[in-house]
Amino acid sequence: MNLIVLIIISAIILITAYYTYGKYVSKKLGVDNSNITPSNTLEDGIDYVPTKSPIVLGHHFASIAGAGPIIGPVIAVAFGWIPAVIWIIIGGVFFGAVHDMASMLASLRHKGKSIGYVIEKQIGAKGKVLFLIFSFSTLILIVGVFADIIAKTFINNPSVASSSILFIILAVVFGVVNKALKNSKYAFVITSIIGVVLMYFFVYLGKFIPINIGYNLWVIILLGYAFIASVTPVTLLLQPRDYLTSYLLYGLIIAAVIGIFIANPEVKMDNDIVFKSPDLGYIFPVLFVTVACGAISGFHSLVASGTTSKQLNKESDAKIVGYGGMLIETFLAILSVIAVMVISREEYVSQLLNHGPVSLFADGLGKIIAAIGISKQMATSFVALTVSAFALTTLDTCTRLARFTFQEYFDDKEHSTIKKVGANRYIATTVVILSSIVLLSTGEFDVLWPIFGSANQLLAALALLAIAVWLIKKRINASFVLIPMYVMFAVALSSLCLFAITNYQNGTYILAILAGALFLLAIVLLWLAKNSLKREQLHQDFNIPGKNEDLGMIKSKNKNL
Asked: Which sequence ranges form a coiled-coil region, renumbered to this chain (predicted)?
């Protein structure tokens, strides 16, 4: 396969999908700008803030991308680049982009609340509690793990730490200036150009002012930053930082594409399809779990229904931000596969084992980008810095999302004091940070992280389940959501089952129990969804009032009728 041909075909498919299938999904979801978005009806200057679509796209893309569409596809090439590319494209167009956009629309129609709230309204309070506990635990895991990863990255690359701190300062200044000049016609364009130029300059400047401090201090600083990013107005730090940082990845993608056209690098990776990897297992379900963010990721539903939905100025923005944002990430995943197609399988296995997927990606893409006329060392460093910068966006976004999840748990509490305390953003964020510190201090995330891939895909299946129930109750043909939902349940449940059996046989009982618990969680939520749809059908068939009645009571009334 010629890489130029591969990149052109992939781009054509994704662009065509945006204007065709994206339009179809928008129509099925009933996107209508006459519906006033929560950012306008509930504007509070903190979380609910109506924002221009380019800024929301930058925030959303930076938040969902992270290192996921890089690490997953690189590892998935163990099964062969052909199945990896096929699943990335099919998954991105028909699964991931649909999942992200539908999560966003469902949230917009439910006061900008999370998928957990949608589950409560469409499936029931028990379903909400189960989902929120699962989501909160997953987010705490991500916060703890990424704080550890970033701290170690900063220790090994002090210049990356310097550049990252400069990015944060720049973001705050950008946010303040943009807010002050929001009524100026050309202010946003001018400040964006200046901000992006300064950001790239800080990439260069960072190597001259490296910061060398210890691991524990870095963890404290990072979690302190995450706390501030969670409680401050979204326009002050989180939004502008993600927006500016997204241009690092846009620049990376553009540089890589230009490099491919200039150098037309030779494909050294073989065309073999490996149905069973000695290290990973069988291609199904492992390939689908491993690619994750490059095709579909449950974490995206938390971002789409968490921070992003609270910023959309109008419903039509959901297409570019939700559907379009996922397709950009899909294209990045294709580049991740290309980065390892330029080496042989023997080199791939050796480098993956000894240096890890991020290093392999940086080295492979660095060689390609160097074709545009910069040194390979500088190109490789730029790729590594971009990955690190996006890991930081995942940290601060996850902290805010965990805060939302904690607050929503207390939404329906009758006791006013408990409800007030649980809804306080400072208290909620403190709980998130302290939980992450406990996780970091015990080191348990090293044990729990392997199960995250399966849990992430289960999260996607559950989000699609909530959306499907919502659409069915609105008398909308939900097949475009149901088909991806069935596939993701098959992937997630198969993976969890295999994971539980393997770890039980290896004596790792804690992972076996966790996998079994997640499997049961999915079954319970499916059962609750089925009962919810039965209740809805009986209400409609017999015009029985009382939406919150249980199924037994409705059947009893049915008999009386």
From this structure: none
Residue 136 contacts residue 208 (beta carbons within 8 Å):
no
* 286 token code pair: 């492992």
**Residue 71 has what DSSP assignment?**
H
Largest pairwise CA distance in the chain: 81
**Which alpha helices (H) appear in 274-324, and where do they start and end?**
283-291, 298-304, 317-318
Q: Residue 550 — pLDDT band, cuts 50, 70, 90? A: very low
Higher pLDDT, 35 or 542: 35
Residue 482: CB atoms within 10 A of its CB come to 16
Instruction: Quote helix, strand, coil % in the chain, to nearest 5.
Output: 80, 0, 20
Per residue in 123-135, pLDDT (tens digit) is 998 999 989 988 8
Report residue 219 as tokens: 């963890």
| Cβ(328)–Cβ(88) below 8 Å | no
With b meaning 16 or more CB within 10 Å and e meaning fewer, what string describes 205-227?
Answer: ebbeeebeeeeeebbebbbebbb
Exposure pattern of 143-165 as b/e (b: 16+ CB <10 Å)? bbbbbbbbbebbbebbbbbbbbb
- What are the structural domains, with CATH classification, of the chain? 3-507 (1.20.1740.10)
Instruction: Kindly state the helix (H) or strand (E) to which residue 481 belongs, with its residue range.
Output: helix 479-505
559, exposed or middle or buried, with CB in 10 Å at 0-12, 13-18, 19+? exposed
424: buried, middle or exposed (CB in 10 Å: 19+, 13-18, 0-12)?
A: middle
Q: What is the pLDDT of residue 485?
A: 97
Q: How far is it, in rounded angstroms, from Cα 89 to Cα 86? A: 5
Q: Bridge-partner residues for 276, per DSSP? A: 282
Whether pLDDT at 471 is above 60? yes
281 forms bridges with which residues in the sheet?
Answer: 277
